């Protein structure tokens, strides 16, 4: 597959930016690749469409082919879809005892994952955990959890024969409260397929436990079935996240993409084996790399992009050392600032800028203001950017209007430019041993 993709990408013509045709050709193959990786058809189609809109017209990084550029764009878009809003590994387990409900089909890996998570909570977060098996269907299931509990040194709720799942859940809750547990985990029974009895049972347990987290455990190798399962459980029970098991196998993990796209629920962990420590926090970059299978190219493009940024920064430093600092330089600075965590962060790092960083801080400037300033610079003509001295009243009005802002905003930007420019000149005069020149090394 990777070979076929590379083939197509190589055929794309070398040019400055990606044409619609280039992107279309490449994405036709990407779509096939996604389907082969077990991504469902509608999801693959939507995904390709999004990337198409995003990629067309994008610049191709120097020393990279358009094909390689498309790979990077596809990869980044995959990561975007896979990424949830919150830290995937951070479970809500405050307000003890916090219930965690584990749901899923039979054989998906619920019991194993329950124990793996309990071990993680105990060892990483120092939580006192109680596990309870609610699987009254398979006699051996309760024993299985008890054995795992002994193995990892986590308590399990004593087994009472003949009790129903709701009663067990209630007993677990009471026991967790009395025993001073931080977390109690409910490992429910599964079926071979979704059925009404299973859902009704899980629903009843959910209602007595009122779980902080409801994690769906699914076999990552089951592709489209896993997605249907997730959809069903989410509709009926409401899940807060997904654990994908058997990701140690050679499946390509396309289910992760579909599941995320269809349910919108975050993937929290992946199971990577039968052992108790074979559980990892979900990393979108890793799964994206696996689905696409072109990690080398992605790394290559990233490297090229970094190199170019470094080259640009060096050029600017040289100009600044000569006392030249125009609006293009300022714009680059502003963009860097956004990247590096705002103005204070950036200025704090620049030689001689510590004081100004404090001023900026006290002025309460933040990213939205940085973006406004960039918009103002974009609204200037090429000549104006290169020579800010041209900026007189009528031009100012035009520029401010073009950015949808006030002339006073532009005045602020110009004041900032003047201050920075003065500072550059002073530093430039410090000669060969000057701070800027040292900073460039
Ligand atoms: P449950 O029916 O959902 O409770 O599933 P179990 O936890 O009993 O797991 C079923 C089988 O899958 C067991 O043999 C586990 O050891 C195995 N298993 C669970 N998670 C993983 C995983 O991430 N990788 C591999 N290779 N096997 C797993
Ligand atoms: Mg089980």
Automatic annotation (TrEMBL):
Its main location: membrane. Involved in targeting and insertion of nascent membrane proteins into the cytoplasmic membrane. Binds to the hydrophobic signal sequence of the ribosome-nascent chain (RNC) as it emerges from the ribosomes. The SRP-RNC complex is then targeted to the cytoplasmic membrane where it interacts with the SRP receptor FtsY. Interaction with FtsY leads to the transfer of the RNC complex to the Sec translocase for insertion into the membrane, the hydrolysis of GTP by both Ffh and FtsY, and the dissociation of the SRP-FtsY complex into the individual components. It is a peripheral membrane protein. Composed of three domains: the N-terminal N domain, which is responsible for interactions with the ribosome, the central G domain, which binds GTP, and the C-terminal M domain, which binds the RNA and the signal sequence of the RNC. Its EC number is 3.6.5.4. It catalyses: GTP + H2O = GDP + phosphate + H(+). This is Signal recognition particle protein. It is an enzyme of class 3 (hydrolase). Pfam families: SRP54 (PF00448), SRP54_N (PF02881), SRP_SPB (PF02978). InterPro entries: AAA+_ATPase, P-loop_NTPase, Signal_recog_part_SRP54_M_sf, Signal_recog_particl_SRP54_hlx, Signal_recog_particle_SRP54_M, SRP, SRP54, SRP54_GTPase_dom. GO terms for biological process: SRP-dependent cotranslational protein targeting to membrane. GO terms for cellular component: plasma membrane; signal recognition particle. Keywords: Cytoplasm, GTP-binding, Hydrolase, Nucleotide-binding, Ribonucleoprotein, RNA-binding, Signal recognition particle. GO terms for molecular function: 7S RNA binding; GTP binding; GTPase activity. It is found in: Cell inner membrane; Cytoplasm. GTP binds at residues 104-111, 187-191, 245-248. Residues 266-279 form the SRP54-type proteins GTP-binding domain. Belongs to the GTP-binding SRP family. SRP54 subfamily. Part of the signal recognition particle protein translocation system, which is composed of SRP and FtsY. SRP is a ribonucleoprotein composed of Ffh and a 4.5S RNA molecule.
């Amino acid at each position: 597959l990777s070979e076929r993709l590379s083939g197509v990408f190589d055929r794309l013509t070398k040019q400055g930016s990606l044409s619609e045709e280039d992107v279309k050709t490449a994405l036709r193959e990407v779509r096939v690749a996604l389907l082969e990786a077990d991504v469902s058809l509608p999801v693959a189609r939507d995904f390709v469409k999004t990337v198409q809109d995003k990629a067309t017209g994008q610049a191709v990084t120097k020393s990279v082919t358009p094909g390689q550029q498309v790979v990077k764009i596809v990869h980044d878009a995959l990561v975007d879809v896979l990424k949830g809003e919150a830290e995937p590994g951070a479970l809500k387990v405050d307000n003890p005892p916090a219930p965690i409900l584990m749901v899923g089909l039979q054989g998906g890996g619920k019991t194993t994952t329950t124990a793996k998570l309990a071990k993680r909570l105990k060892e990483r977060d120092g939580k006192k955990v109680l596990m309870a098996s609610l699987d009254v269907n398979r006699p051996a299931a309760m024993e299985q959890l008890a054995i795992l509990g002994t193995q990892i040194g986590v308590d399990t709720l004593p087994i009472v024969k003949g009790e129903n799942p709701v009663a067990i859940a209630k007993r677990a809750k009471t026991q967790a409260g009395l025993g001073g547990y931080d977390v109690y985990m409910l490992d429910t029974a599964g079926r071979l397929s979704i059925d009404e009895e299973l859902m009704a049972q899980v629903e009843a347990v959910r209602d007595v436990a009122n779980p902080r987290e409801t994690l769906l455990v699914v076999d990552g190798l089951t592709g489209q079935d896993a997605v249907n399962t997730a959809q069903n459980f989410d509709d009926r029970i409401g899940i807060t996240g997904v654990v994908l098991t058997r990701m140690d196998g050679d499946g390509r993990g396309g289910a992760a993409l579909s599941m995320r796209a269809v349910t919108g629920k975050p993937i929290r962990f992946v199971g990577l084996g039968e052992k108790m420590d074979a559980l990892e926090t979900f990393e979108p970059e890793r799964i994206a790399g696996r689905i696409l299978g072109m990690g080398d190219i992605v790394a290559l493009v990233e490297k090229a992009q970094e190199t170019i940024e470094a080259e640009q920064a060096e050029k600017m430093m040289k100009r600044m050392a000569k006392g030249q600092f125009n609006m293009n330089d300022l714009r680059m600075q502003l963009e860097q600032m956004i990247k590096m965590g705002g103005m204070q962060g950036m200025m704090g790092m620049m030689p001689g800028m510590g004081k100004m960083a404090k001023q900026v801080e006290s002025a309460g400037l933040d990213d939205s203001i940085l973006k406004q300033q960039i918009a103002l610079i974009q609204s200037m003509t090429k000549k104006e950017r290169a020579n800010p001295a041209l900026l007189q009243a009528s031009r100012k009005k035009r520029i401010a209007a073009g950015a949808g802002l006030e002339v006073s905003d532009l005045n602020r930007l110009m004041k900032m430019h003047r201050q920075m420019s003065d500072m550059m000149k002073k530093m430039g005069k410090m000669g060969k041993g000057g701070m800027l020149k040292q900073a460039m090394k």
